Amino acid sequence: MVATNVQGKESAGVTPALWSSRFVFIMAAVGSAVGLGNIWKFPYITGQNGGGAFVLVYLICIAIIGIPIMMSEVMLGRRGGKSPIGTMGAVAAAEGRSRNWAGVGIMATLAAFLILSFYSVIAGWTMPYIVEAAKGGFAGIAAEDSGAMFGGLLASPGQLLLWHSVFMGLTVLVSAGGVKHGLERAVSWLMPALFVLLLILVGYAMTTGHFGEALVFLFRPDFSSLTAESILVALGHAFFTLSLASGAMMAYGAYLKKDVSIARTSFTVAIMDVCVALLAGLAIFPVVFAHGLQPGEGPGLIFVTLPVAFGQMPGGGFFATLFFVLLLFAAWTSSISMLESLVRFLEEKGVGRVKAAVGGGLAAWLVGITTVLSLNLWSDFAPLAMFERFEGKTLFDIYDYLTANIMMPLGALLTAIFVGWVMKPEHSAAELGGQWHALWHAVVRYVTPIGVLVIFYFNLF
Ligand code: TRP
């Protein structure tokens, strides 16, 4: 079977083979979706934004904005059959509209690039933790010592740079070989293994005596702790965790066979993604409460708490090693998808796959160095401090804010407008199938754009 684009021709000679089955697509999409966002970011932003009410808003954002946008992106990707930039231009042209819609693809590709630059630095943290775990370094560790160990890592630009470089190298390696080749086999067993390990950790968390406290924290909404900004953070995270508005799902959708149900597939991916995040929360917060740690601790949360938990359980050294290895792999299958839009775009411009992957990776690596420095030497450098919103924000904080809170919501808004108002309903129905189309179409026409606009309005004005 050959991928056909909207003009009915084979796409620009760079169309790689399609995913071999629906299962493989799901695993690749879940591989992209499940990553640091679920296990590192979700617990710490939940801690910072007060727990239950934030979790509820996040779940609502996933259901009424995230899933419809995921369906839209996979649908557009399959219809366009190109890089997100090429796809947006081609589908718009086929609808008789301006090719400038490619701008949505450009912003998505840029967002993915910026995210990759700092994601690689954070993912790098897993590697010294693997080494330490394997050496048995967490045995009986106290919370303060674990905090000091993490602080020591962040204070060392050399260490951070080393692991950032290794991780970016790994990402480029798979990307250069073609995503399908490296990804298919890996994700099919990694994701299930990660899931089982999280269940074991939740099992341990139940023995800490603080599981009930964690349940209350995560699931009893206290709306007094909810601010307009935390709603924006929840929305931004819904996009981040599902790899939306950044080309990843559009790029992967281009490799999807025509007979696969986009709606069912998107539901499956989103549900698995949410389950991993909630399991991570259930594994981490009991430990936080049991050791008097702060839920609002910030980006170091799992790196400080989990070693303490591992240090106290039987076989902890083994499980800790396994956990950080799986986290590394989860981050890896995500970072590959971040590079994909750019690599596909460069390929369409005639650059070879290897060159495109190496060039894109190198550029993201360079930008990533500014994140490395934000954590130590430049930790007081707040280049946008003249705007109140960015006071005290380092370059790393700014990349995170710009991508998750501005570029992704904006990209998703434009995507919803495109599929809801610009694209002819017959054309989207041809991809999505009858059963879900009417509901989806109403949601992307009204609910998604209004939801995003309202959240934007209360934050930016
Ligand atoms: N969803 C991934 C996570 O939660 C991150 C991710 C993968 C991503 N691909 C992306 C984020 C593309 C933005 C853009 O870790």
Molecular structure report:
The N and C termini lie far apart (about 50 Å). By secondary structure, the chain is an all-alpha fold. Mean pLDDT is about 90; it is low at about 1-5 and about 5-15. The chain is about 75% helix and about 0% strand. The protein has one domain: Hydantoin permease. Tryptophan binds near residues 246 and 338. This is Transporter. Pfam families: SNF.
First-residue to last-residue Cα separation:
50 Å
Q: What are the secondary-structure elements, in order, as H or E?
A: HHHHHHHHHHHHHHHHHH
Q: Hey, roughly how much beta strand do the residues contain?
A: under 5%
* Structural domain count: 1
The overall strand count is: 0
Largest sheet: none
How many H/I helices? 18
Bin the helical content: over 70%
CATH class annotation: Mainly Alpha
Q: What is the multimeric organization of the chains shown?
A: single chain
Bound molecules: tryptophan
Outline: globular
Overall mean pLDDT stands at: 90
Low-pLDDT windows of residues: 1-5, 7-14
The fold-level CATH name is: Hydantoin permease
Radius of gyration: 21 Å
What structural category do the secondary elements indicate?
A: mainly alpha
Question: From the 3D coordinates, which CATH architecture would you assign?
Answer: Orthogonal Bundle
Family: Belongs to the sodium:neurotransmitter symporter (SNF) (TC 2.A.22) family.
Subcellular location: Membrane
Pfam family, one: SNF
InterPro entries: Na/ntran_symport, SNS_sf, YocR/YhdH-like
